[in-house]
């Protein structure tokens, strides 16, 4: 079988529009050097939305939906409100794609801004995965790393963009060991599957340049590096500044997503560009998640005022 590039996503129907935009950006920047297979692990995407997304297919580029029963993750912790059980699908990739040796995994809040072939050709140097350092947790929450089993002076990595050596993970019985890990650490997890991956693979990861996963918090790291005059992360200030406009992958992790009017993160303008290449080209930027967040904030504020009034009365 001729070599092809394999990219995977996991998504439910709520994020299908944003999945389409991410895939459109991936395809638009692809050099067509090899066949590109895109697997979407489907946690309930409607037939209509699957059809809209598959209209992005091109010659030598296929999009396949693999329906997954989320009940297989019953009992897995959900600690982050805007993240669903679909996030755990990446832990099952070795068995979900049994004939594949290697894959790239993307979260749906990703915009690709360069040829994915560059990422595919990165050597893992014998490691199970390749990922980019998540600076905030690495620098500000060392105690959390110890709590989830990270032994030694290792960085915490972001799991929204990964290159995975599936052959190696199968040899290591990674999926079987996830169950054992959860039995010991489940109550201590804060960042869900990302904690699991870090706790299990902290010494089996190749760190990538932020070129492959530029996150909003990298802007804050620059000021911290200057303020404390220490090398907090192994990237230079010049490298990080340059990537604000030239990254291969922009990752809008956190609550302010690229489809929200309040987003000012590097690369946010690209979302609208690629949205116009999808069946959602006329959708506006008023997002359900944003409205839900405002409603919740208002509810919390009102409860606080009521409690304060009761206390003072």
From TrEMBL:
Keywords of this entry: Glycosyltransferase, Metal-binding, Transferase
Signal sequence residues: none
InterPro entries: Glyco_trans_8, Glycosyltrans_8_dom-fam, Nucleotide-diphossugar_trans
Pfam families registered for this protein in UniProt: Glyco_transf_8 (PF01501)
GO molecular function, one term: metal ion binding
Stated name of the protein: Glycosyltransferase family 8 protein
Lineage start: Bacteria, Pseudomonadati, Pseudomonadota, Gammaproteobacteria, Vibrionales
């Amino acid at each position: 079988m001729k070599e092809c590039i394999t990219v995977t996503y996991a998504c439910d129907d709520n994020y299908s529009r944003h999945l389409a935009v991410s895939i459109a950006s991936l395809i638009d920047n692809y050099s067509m050097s090899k066949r590109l297979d895109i697997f979407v692990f489907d946690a309930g995407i409607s037939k209509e939305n699957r059809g809209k997304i598959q209209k992005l297919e091109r010659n030598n580029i296929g999009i396949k939906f693999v329906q997954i029963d989320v009940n297989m993750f019953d009992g897995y912790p959900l600690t982050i409100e805007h993240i669903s059980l679909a996030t755990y699908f990446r832990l099952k990739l070795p068995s979900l794609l049994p004939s594949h040796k290697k894959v790239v995994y993307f979260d749906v809040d990703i915009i690709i801004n360069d040829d994915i072939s560059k990422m595919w050709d990165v050597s893992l140097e014998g490691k199970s995965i390749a990922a980019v350092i998540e600076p905030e947790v690495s620098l500000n929450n060392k105690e959390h790393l110890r709590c989830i089993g990270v032994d030694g002076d290792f960085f915490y990595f972001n799991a929204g963009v990964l290159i995975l050596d599936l052959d190696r993970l199968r040899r290591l019985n990674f999926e079987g060991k996830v169950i054992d890990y959860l039995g010991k650490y489940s109550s201590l997890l804060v960042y869900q599957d990302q904690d699991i991956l870090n706790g299990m693979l902290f010494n089996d990861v190749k760190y990538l340049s932020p070129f492959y996963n530029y996150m909003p918090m990298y802007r804050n790291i620059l000021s911290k590096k200057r303020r404390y005059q220490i090398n907090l992360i192994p990237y230079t200030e010049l490298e990080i500044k340059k990537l604000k406009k030239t990254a291969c992958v922009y990752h809008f992790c956190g609550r302010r997503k690229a489809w929200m009017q309040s987003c000012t993160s590097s690369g946010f303008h690209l979302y609208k560009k690629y949205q116009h290449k999808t069946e959602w080209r006329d959708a506006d930027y008023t997002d359900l998640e944003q409205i839900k967040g405002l409603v919740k904030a208002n509810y919390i504020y009102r409860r606080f005022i009521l409690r304060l009034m009761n206390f003072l009365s």
